[in-house]
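Hi L.,

You mentioned the student needs an example of a multi-chain input paired with its predicted structure. This one should do, with 402 residues in total across all chains.
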Amino acid sequence: MDILVFTLLVGAGSFAAGVLGALTGLGGGSLLVTMLVLFFGVDMHYAMGASLVSVIATSSGAAAAYVREGYSNLRVGMVLETATTTGALFGAFLALYVTTGMLSLIFGLVLLYSAWVSGRPQDDSGKVDDPPDPLATKLRMDSEYPTPAGRVAYHVHNVPAGYGLMFVAGGLSGLLGIGSGAVKVLAMDQAMRLPFKVSTTTSNFMIGVTAAASAGIYLNRGYIDPGLVMPVTLGVLAGAILGAVILEKSKPNLLRKIFTLVVLALAVQMIYNGIAGKL
Amino acid sequence: MRWTDQQIEEFIGVLLRVGVTISAAVVLLGGILYLHRHGSEPVHLHIFRSEPKDLRDIVGILRDAEADRAVGIMQLGVLLLIATPIARVAFSIFAFLAVRDRFYAGVTAFVLLVLLYSITFGR
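Structure written out for the whole complex:
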């Protein structure tokens, strides 16, 4: 295959991954790495580098829109970024000592988890608003967010658990070259019990910074190949823009289910490859 | 002058949008040149060899881009993209200082240091 054909095919695949990533809010980066490795035979390290760069693009693009709507919590985001960026450095360090087969296995497990998260109901049912974590109060994290019925105040819970999970999210980002939005949402949505809109937008806001921490190291190590990054980033960005437009007009529940199945299949394949030592 | 929260958020929104747009435009420009000049060459991404030295650090990338090498221009776009969230963090320090919030300015400065370390010395 020559470079022109390869670029066009990778660009088209990345466009599709970008649309799916935007529609589901999850799995953009992990889907990309899987596609590049399984369908295009790209080495895992180059795939991780290209995915990470595209994650910065989509996260920054989406954050630009969200930040003005007033959902994201900048204080929570900034405190947790100290965990995700140091976690990313640690993960990128670990990536030097983990075999490609092992990376593939961990990747598959993260995909399985992402599929589970994207299949869960996305609302605030079952969240109890008991008194906030004293640490959150001390750090002035409690805030309010806009709803159709006016601004609603919320408390922030369990900061230490959220912080620990964020270190893990950063570690996975540095280890695998993904945004690890699924783990970030777990930390904020489940542990810290932020309203769903707040946790997804704040997570998005943080993904770009976390990915930038890993990307610096990846660049220095030579994981970032410009010829591969070009179609991946431009394709994902264009796909994410289209996905956002579709999302505004409809609630794609069927698409979400199809996506979950696709991710499950890819996860099984990556885990199999990891165990069989095929990569 | 005192910035309101609204103005700070608007500025961050503009900063991110401009950063992504410029980076994407530079990558696209480099990409067109790259396909035009190298489109018929074979792909070599199956085995990891690490990128050449000049595409791995800021000085080398700038030199390559200046020499009108397509890969250098694309990598410059990548560098601008990585710089976008870093610029956002740097601006946030200023924004927290503007509302006299020293604690959060310090937290943000720590994040900025980690990012700067990663892009310069991180291996």
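You could point out the following to them. Chain B has one domain: 5-40+50-120. Chain B touches chain A through 63 residues (CB under 8 Å).

Best wishes,
N.
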